[in-house]
Amino acid sequence: MKALTYHGPGRRTWGDVPDPVVRDPEDAVVRVDAVTICGTDLHILKGDVPEVEQNRILGHEAVGTVTATGPGVRTVMAGDRVLVSCISACGRCTYCRGASYGQCTGGGGWILGHLIDGCQAEHVRTPFADTSLHKLPDGVSDEDALLLADILPTSYEVGVRNGRVGPGDSVAIVGAGPIGLAAILTARLYSPSRIVAVDLARARLDAAKRFGADATLTVAEATPEAVRELSRDGLGVDVAIEAVGVPESFELCTRLVRPGGRVANVGVHGKPAVLHLEDLWIRDITVTTGLVDTDSTPLLLDLLAAGRLEVGGLVTHRFGLHEMQDAYDVFADAADTGALKVALFRT
Fold first, then answer.
1. Residue ranges of the domains in the chain?
2. What average pLDDT score do residues 314-334 get?
3. Residue 283, Cα to own-chain centre: how many angstroms?
4. Residue 48: pLDDT over 90
């Protein structure tokens, strides 16, 4: 089969690799019908995730059709159309029993495209199929479902839920890429009074406006004073969600929140950020971090199927699976291409 493989920082190849097979009784093999590229894949290619070995097939977000299962798999079978979650869950360890699947100690967690071969391929082996695949309703398209593999649950769980967004809150979202836009969509489920989006690119701020941001600011405009003016009582936002993964965006979030506010870091950081405790200790600020658990995926899938979660417009560029290299180039150059999320389909 063909797959996208990693060969050290800055080097990737689309070429022939062995077909995956069932190795464990709880495995399934899935034919990839739709797949996407994540900002985390770009971090890997920059060398920010040293655990990723050379020749690893990248990717952790896909929709496909089950082609084979191990004898221990009970809830999916060959022919089922499934969402391949970015997180694999053994279902038995202490963390999984508490629904913290991202911290699985039984061989799961974020492993696809990280510690084992991933989804940017014609087929993928998926461990723990019963707890890591989600059967899709007929009315949900491959493209829409693809967005629930990672960015929607990540934004919801690590950003909105960790940040404890509530009715009437003012929320700043720093970074209006796919994760930031998904945070806008899922924050709106809780009826905040105002959502302010911050980004370097005017095109992404325009997209944030379309997805429901009440106000948009460039990074240069997003001074604490300007954001305080946009907050409900002039004291700053209740919640600041970091959706970029660079030190400057995290440090900006800590300056935008009101006393008693929450900073929810979602971005994947490859460099240290300064935590200014000399300023924050007296302001009663809560800072959260996290890897997505995907325990919210069934809920988000229900909302999507019911028409309560509108994800149209997040995918801006579409390719055939064999055009993987072109898709990477477009996604990596989002400032010029205007790419938000790219989707690749079996043709």
1. 2-150+293-345, 155-288
2. 97
3. 30
4. no
- Kindly report the CATH class assigned to 2-150+293-345: alpha beta
The answer to whether 119 and 84 have CB atoms below 8 angstroms apart is yes
Looking at residue 76, its amino acid is V
Going edge to edge, which strands form the sheet with 2-6?
Answer: 12-16, 2-6, 56-57
pLDDT in tens, 86-140: 999 999 999 999 999 999 999 999 999 999 999 999 999 999 999 999 999 999 9
Task: Tell me if domain 2-150+293-345 and domain 155-288 are identical in fold.
Answer: no
Pick the CATH number of 155-288 from 1.10.443.10, 3.40.50.720, 3.40.50.2300, 3.40.50.300: 3.40.50.720
pLDDT, one tens digit per residue, over 51-68 is 999 999 999 999 999 999
Q: What is the pLDDT of residue 259?
A: 97
One-letter amino acid of 39: G
Residue pair 119/61 in contact (Cβ under 8 Å)? The answer is yes
pTM of the model: 0.95
What tens digit of pLDDT does each residue of 271-321 get?
899 999 999 999 999 999 999 999 999 999 999 999 999 999 999 999 999
